[in-house]
Amino acid sequence: MVEHLPSDEPETQGAHLELLSLIEQHPEYSQRRLAQAMGISLGKAHYLLKALFDKGLVKAGNFRRSDSKLSYLYALTPAGVRHRMQLTQSFLRRKEQEFELLRAEIDRLRTALGQQAAGSRSPDTVS
């Protein structure tokens, strides 16, 4: 089982989930390309990727590109695949809770608007 670090807060978990998913779909992406795909800086991508390496969730292998530059091919480890699934489940639960809270707030606002509209349509009685 992968240990959960204090830095595993929802924002970091979301970034790790996105990075794990990108690596799974595009193992040939460089750190620069991963950063671009995520809309983050190269430094942040490196930081996130290093954390995944340190946890044993991602591994890298060397390969040669046709332009003779050495590059890496990233791959999720079996623990990385399991962790991505756990993050997906956690993310989904959190988003479903947020959705339910938003739905309740929308219902309250609609009710309040309906009551205000009904109140403004009835004639004011003056004694």
Automatic annotation (TrEMBL):
Pfam families referenced in this protein's UniProt entry, alphabetically: HTH_24 (PF13412)
Signal peptide region: none
InterPro entries noted in UniProt: MarR_EPS, WH-like_DNA-bd_sf, WH_DNA-bd_sf
NCBIfam families, alphabetized: MarR_EPS
Protein name: MarR family EPS-associated transcriptional regulator
